[in-house]
Each structure stands twice: as C-alpha cells, then as structure tokens.
Amino acid sequence: MSGKSLVAIIMGSESDLPVMEEAAQILKEFNVPYEITISSAHRSPERTVEYVRQATEKGIEVIIAGAGGAAHLPGVIAAHTILPVIGVPIESSLLGFDSLLSIVQMPAGVPVATMAIGKAGARNAGILAVQILAGKHEGLKEKLNNFKQSLKAKVVEQANKISKDGAGGKT
Ligand code: RP5
Questions:
Q1: Residue with CA closest to ligand 1 atom 9
Q2: Which ligand 1 atom is the nearest neighbour of the CA of 16?
Q3: 7-137, what's its fold?
C-alpha cells in the first residue's frame, strides 16, 4: 500500500482524542495510511470546509469524524464531500446520546454512517473504513478475513475457559 493517506480522522476537539485514537489504532494494525486532525464545525467552520475540500482533492477515500455534544462535524463534512463519512459520537454531558442523535439524524440525501458511542464506536469506524477500502485495495481483504477469524477464535477460547471453570466447580 502506498504511503499516501487514504483515511482522514477528524475530531472537534483535543478532548475527543482518547476516543478517536481507537480508530487510528485499527488503521495502524491494518497498515492503512491515515492523517489525523482537529477541526470544529462550530468553532472553526471555515477550516473544516477547507480541510474537507483539500482532503477530497488529495485522494483521501474515507473520512472518520468524531464529535460530542451538538455533534455537527460529521454532518457538515458529509455536506461538503461525496466521500463516505463515518461518524463517531463522543460521550458528553448527556452520556453521548446528544452526540449520537446529532450524528445519526441526517436528512435524506446526506448520509453519515453512524457508529456506537465512544471507544467501541471509534474502533468500528476504523474497521468499517478498512472494509470500504478493501473494495479497491485488494490486500486488505485477506487481512480482514484474518481479523474476523481472530474474533471467532477469541469466542471459542472464552467458551472453553468458562466451561473449564465450570468443571472446576465455579458457577
Ligand atoms: C465538540 O464539543 C467536541 O467534539 C467535543 O466533543 C465537545 C467538547 O469540546 P471541548 O469543550 O472539550 O473542547 O465540539
């Protein structure tokens, strides 16, 4: 895979970073080049729109956007590009439900693929980005299949462990 960034991770504030790092970690594991930045739909609207314009021009293929509260960042980005946008709701004062609803309730015609709230959602955003890229970047298919196999193996490992514990008298 070339060194050119294929995914852009954008978040509304530095306070979102501990969550959004989970998406970055997945991309690292799959060896997908990415870039990461901070831009706010409300505090730096011009920077956000300019960043999206440049990202589209320079060959970014998927955008992952995380925001909390009145989380308009993923939607504003989706309004300015035809690239797939994956939204990650960040937990905030209303447990993240505010962010989730802000991101998921897009008007017909401007979709944002909305993940679960928080770190699990950010991890899934990374995985979904890899799945989207795998349609075009052949090498990622095998890695994704191996990843899915590792999830299956983990379930069997857990099942074996719990049944052994059961045989040992634990309930
Ligand atoms: C949103 O407001 C950001 O995405 C962040 O989740 C939230 C709070 O931002 P800070 O006040 O921590 O900078 O725009």
A1: 13
A2: 6
A3: Rossmann fold (3.40.50)
